Amino acid sequence: MTGEKIIESMKPMHDRSNGLGGGFAAYGIYPEYKDFFALHMFLDDRAARKSCEALLRETMEIVHAERIPTRTTPAITDEPLIWRFFVSPLRSVLASMQLNEEECVARAVMTINTQMKGAYVFSGGKNMGVFKAVGFPEDVGYFYRLEEYEAYSWTAHGRYPTNTPGWWGGAHPFALLDYSIVHNGEISSYDANRRFIEMFGYKCTLQTDTEVITYIADYLLRKQGLSLEEMASVIAAPFWSTIARKDECEQKKLLYLRKVFSSLLVTGPFSIILGFDGGLMALNDRLKLRSMVVGEKDDKVFIASEEAAIRVMEPGVENIYAPAGGEPVIVRVKEGKF
Amino acid sequence: MLCIDASHMDYQQLNAEIKSSSGDISITGCFGQRFIGAGLEHRHIDISGTPGNALGAYLNGACIEVQGNAQDAVGDTMNAGRIIVHGSIGDAAGYAMRGGELFVEGDAGYRAGIHMKAYGDKIPVMVIGGKAGSFLGEYQAGGVIIVLGLSESSRPIVSNFPCTGMHGGKLFLRSDCKNILLPKQVTGHSATVDDLTEISGYVQAYCELFGGSYEELLHSPFTVITPDNQNPYKQMYVLN
Predict the structure, then answer these.
(1) Cβ atoms within 10 Å, residue B189
(2) Which residues of B touch A320 (CB under 8 A)?
(3) Is B43 inside a domain boundary?
(4) What residues in A contact B160, CB-CB < 8 Å?
(5) Count of structural domains within chain A
(6) How far apart are alpha carbons B133 and B112 in whole angstroms?
């Protein structure tokens, strides 16, 4: 699927954002570089790019680097330099540091985002990429020429910042490695979550709450090896009274997850879509304080905050339903399809 | 009747066109425009497509009929009139509704009837043909909510935490409610003949709109939920 349809779906959702952030994540877009991590970066100037490249070369090979193609449009202004680097960590470095390649890349991303002035990595997975800017999402899609990319899954977001600044890095999706998050809502547990997750090497640098959910996903899924369903039971844990009504085996598991990862319970309204290599997971907060609708048509699944956004993409959509709060909707691409 | 093709209109254009016209309206190609019919009196609006959030907010006597699903906050704070949805509705339908009628053929999302209230002859009514999500009738202070449970899903007729904070009005569920957990400030009892007489007109109206036999429906067990007394939350926080 090219980016055209999802851009269309954002048009009737125009009033859900205020032009201070729009973005997309696309999976399966770099088949020719699918074995390399694609780092998408905002850079203030040429000097920032040079020093960033030098830093990357210390631990990895850069197989290809280029400016991400954009269009000039009056709707998007003040853009930084926007580059992508396809990289592969050096085997010798991995061996001596005793790291796997994901951890090596994740550490490099954290180092650049916290220590390098004027450089910021906003996407770094394999065969996927985030495209974001300050602007309305439909204009951001036009700016990045997303109709020229083909992906097996797309997510999109229009931002309406209420508590934190609207800037290029603050637009959604937020990504680390191949995990990306779009989020509609406002997390009241942000600081509790941040304090916990920063103990494990993550640094929250983006002045917005959504970032922390991305790191929680990476921590629980990649580092702790939880399943997507288990991750949902941690961040949108059922109430004690709801757990008490489950069967014994289920109770045991839910109590374990609530107790062990109590600091990763995300409270406040949220409706999120987590993108990952091979699929998507949609999840609402347990009180369902934000809306979410799911529909299907043939071999496609659609998820949106409003049914109207789905109808624009697929007027004949079937099996429309609203998942309950805390009930994850997990969609996986058929084996071998990408 | 005025026909409006809304497919390329934003919500302001569409609502301006509705306001500046007189008489009944048929809207086609609706894609998420908000506030349709807000505050409207004495007219009929027929909608094909998917109307946006806050459909019929502050409605004041008009009738809105949707051929399909509606989104969140249908009938927000409506005062009078009727909204008919030939499909399902999203969350927070009838939020703070204070009069009028809302008929939904299918299911309702979370928080249907939240803060519904009544005064004097203003008695709002919501009839949900299918099933309701969690927090049905949250903080209900007045009016009547009826859930018929007619959709085929395996979900219970109402999900978790119904009637939380309820302190007025009545809630009818077409079920014996054996597995429904209610908060301790409210009581559910099997509907009496008098209870059913009270809602028979509404159930009949539902069947006239969407089909089915209201006599048959009223023959099934109903549970009526009401708050325990005038002040069920006395001394919850302070002596009041």
Answers:
(1) 12
(2) 69, 88
(3) no
(4) 242
(5) 1
(6) 8
